[in-house]
Amino acid sequence: xxxxxxxxxxxxxxxxTEHPGETGTSFWQTVxxxxxxxxxxxxxxxxxADHWCQKGxxxxxxxxxxxxxxxxxxxxTLTKDMTYVVSDELSSHRxxxxxxxxxxxxxxxxxxxxxxASK
Length: 119
Description:
- The chain has one domain (about 15-110): Jelly Rolls.
- It has strands spanning about 15-20, 25-35, 35-45, 45-50, 55-70, 75-80, 85, 95, 100-110.
- By secondary structure, the protein is mainly beta.
- Strands 1, 2, 3, 4, 5, 6, 7, 8 and 9 form a 9-stranded antiparallel sheet that branches.
- It is about 0% helix and about 50% strand.
């Protein structure tokens, strides 16, 4: 359970960190609040993630477009104002952006899968 008091975030005051991809670069502005990680993430044009991710996320496209590739071969294109949601360990996915993109990504503990009921 999370208890987060009302607060505002001025993203212009949040420092950026650089994360190289297989190609291109991502820039993260990260705020952590009580186990909740919120990020503004920008991928440069030609970005390809350097790994397959199995973590859960809520990903909202603010500007541009990107493709979320799944290890199953499926691919989903997201453009401005589109969102995807996935829980931890329910897919192996990575991001690709030909033109560059700006995303709001929210993740951490609340996206863990629920324990399976005993039979």
